[in-house]
## 1
Amino acid sequence: MKIALSTDHAGYAQLQQLQEFLGRLGHECVNFGPAVLDPADDYPDFIRPCAEAVASGSCHIGIIWGGSGQGEAMAANRVKGARCSVYYGPATAKQPIDADGTAAADAYEILRLARQHNHANMLSLGARFLTFDEAKQAVAIWLETPYSVVERHVRRVSKLDQ
């Protein structure tokens, strides 16, 4: 799979590690930067080209880093066709049963739901909230989760891209 990667200064160190990790899994990575660590950089400058690569189809998916991941996801989601979810740590569902009667499986269920129900094609990680091992596990789960073909999910996602 061809994966677009990007960050700002907050995720700079982790991005290189992530690229190496994904390469070992057999994925091709396109790094949209930054090329050097600059604490004064602005995340939209790097995230937007990454999201455009995903939205255009030149990359299959994108994984981005930021301090919380929130601003980066907002920048990505401004690109039509990019559907970016945020992950900054394990979350346990307060409601143990999903609307379709499925029991919440574990603390990483939010990652699966973002892929299955929302067809997330980008994942934004919060560098200030995750260890690299937690991020690797999150990315692995996210990558392994397929999109749902349930009609209501497909219908709802198609409305996002209009």
## 2
Amino acid sequence: MKHVIIPALLAGAICLPVSGADWPQYRGPNHDGTSPEKIPTTWPASGLRQVWKTPLNNGFSSFTLGDGKVYTQVTRDFDGGNQETCLALDAATGKELWAVPMGVGSSKYDDGGKSGASGNDGGDGARSTPTYDDGKVYVYSSQLLLKCLNASDGKLVWSCDLLKEHAGKNIRWESAASPLIDGDLLFVECGGAGQALVAFDKKDGHVVWQGQDDGLTQSTPVAATILGQRQVIFFTSRGLVSVAPKTGAVLWRFPFPANGVSAASPVVAGDIVYVTKSYGVGSAACKITKTDGAYAATQMWKVGPDESNQWSTPVVLNGYLYGLFGQAKFGAAPLDCVDLATGAIKWSKPNFGPGGINLVDGNLLVLSDAGDLVLVKATPDAYTELARSHVLAGKCWNSVALSNGRIYARSTREGVSLDMEAIR
């Protein structure tokens, strides 16, 4: 472990609390794609008012927000090679404030950004989304290098190369997982034997616990409270594994074999957990029970690969999943409503592609892979489109961020901020 510790006085000056309006990690404060923001349901033909738009070269990383800044990753030329680079932009203007290369040499993605018949071959690049917490930004590269940076200036606080220090084993198209913070701990998976799952102290980077032998996937873990127990749920090559956050003790497992290309996160709704994997696997839901202190996960239903989420994680409301489904359909992939209790499809609307989806103000905010932002009523009765606007050029294989009345969205070519409180 390499450490670069900043003076205590400076650390105290920049460690600002996260406000309720921040979007500090991938898919929001609770990593469930849900926002408390308000959004108008009627947009003029010109769409939501654009606050700023800025060029952003290759990357599938989403936006996160904290300390008045927007964070993301791009792939940029440093020292003669393409390196994944963490950026901080001014949230009000989109102006770049600092850029920090991950420093692991040229990144290679095995043509992971090719989209075939969709025609949207808009680039490739960094996959992981930075996490903001208490004046720090945590970045996990596709090559399993974890860095903690100062949010104020991007200076290094601590780092860990999990390939070297934890026997990490990467996968085809490399890691896309983002760091998860819950309390004082930061969680990642790296696939190392006996140390596949790792929890770090977020402040100084020391290892709190490590364990298990599961292979890596591209899925970001989630933290949830199920049956009164706080837990962190990883989606590994073996399936779901839930652990006690402070110790790493396994609480339950749900076998769901998957190769590494599994980017969607688990979805938790009460005592039900949904898991999905394209490329020949499918989707399933399991029910978590507890008897005499022991947990168990029992399959409720399972469907085939055509009813799976390729890499976009669904949202859930009132017992229904809403997500972008369909294996390798790219631009034709539909937005579906699925009964979480049975797996039955209630309705399906084609031609969204594997973009991103959020739940805001009781509605679905969907970003298509071609850059259309679409507002849809979150109801199982029928597909009801409320508003639509084309907002980005390039490929959008990520979800948007919502903070302080604004939408922050990006593609492999550009980023945009839109005002949800003022329409033009």
## 3
Amino acid sequence: MIFLLFLPTIIAPFIYFYYPKKINAHTLSNRHKNIKRGKTAIYLNCISFIAAFLIVTIFIFSTSAYASAESSTTSELALAAAFIGAGLVTGLGAIGTGIAVSSAAAAAIGAISENENNFGKAMIFVAMAEGIAIYGLLISFMILGRV
């Protein structure tokens, strides 16, 4: 059921981006129009995801969820929330690492091709980007350790 709340946050930006919108051809080029619509779609995705995430967080951690310690549904809900949280931390950490490493590694290769003495400095930035995935994995282990 919680997935159904997040589904519109995934679909809505694509609908906005691909829905034909009438823009005067003389004022904006196609490339500029697509860039503007893409940025708006990303902003819409971020805002709607954060709103849905806050609503789900408030729902999961409300006092009514912990009304009865013996209730099996409460323990199942807490267990499901822990697994979802661990999965989100690991997945988003890996996505962030991929984005960071793609930029840092490309810049590092360019710097090394110009001057081979920049290898150590360039690899530090790539290693820092890899740390994001390690931190996400550590947090997911901490979450699963409490279950």
